[in-house]
Structure to design on (143 residues):
């Protein structure tokens, strides 16, 4: 068994990318995102306008890291971008059946309502925040 001092000196040490930590981070991010939507009028306009989408993408990154905790950061990033951009691009389709889903609270939170280019920027920033959290907590190289 390694001594704690040796572990702390090792810059590449990690905590095994614990699923429980990813789950807690995902749920915490989800709560912050929901709060940012509920109290949008109490936030500065810029933050109120973009926080929800940014946190949604951070939640996607952390959620995928929870599901696929053996994947490296690069794979999780790619899958997060594909998923997030795919959801946004799907909003260009306005079929009656999917709009019925989007008109529910859970449908709107997951699928959104309409395409906005600014959402793609928010998703990119949110995923980047997820990468930073991942690297800070688990001290993993970007590979």
């Amino acid at each position: 068994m390694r001594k704690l001092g040796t572990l702390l000196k090792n810059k590449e040490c990690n905590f095994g990318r614990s699923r429980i930590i990813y789950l807690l981070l995902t749920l915490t991010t989800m709560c912050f995102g929901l709060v940012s939507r509920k109290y949008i009028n109490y936030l500065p306009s810029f933050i109120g306008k973009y926080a929800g989408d940014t946190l949604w993408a951070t939640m996607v990154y952390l959620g995928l890291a929870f599901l696929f905790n053996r994947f490296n950061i690069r794979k999780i990033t790619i899958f997060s971008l594909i998923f997030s951009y795919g959801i946004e691009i799907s909003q260009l389709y306005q079929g009656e059946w999917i709009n019925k889903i989007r008109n529910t609270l859970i449908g709107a939170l997951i699928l959104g309502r309409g395409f906005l280019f600014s959402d793609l920027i928010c998703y990119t920033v949110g995923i980047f925040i997820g990468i930073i959290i991942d690297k800070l907590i688990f001290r993993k190289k970007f590979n």
User: Anything to note?
Assistant: The chain has a mean pLDDT of 88. Residues 4 and 10 are 10 Å apart (CA to CA). The radius of gyration is 17 Å.
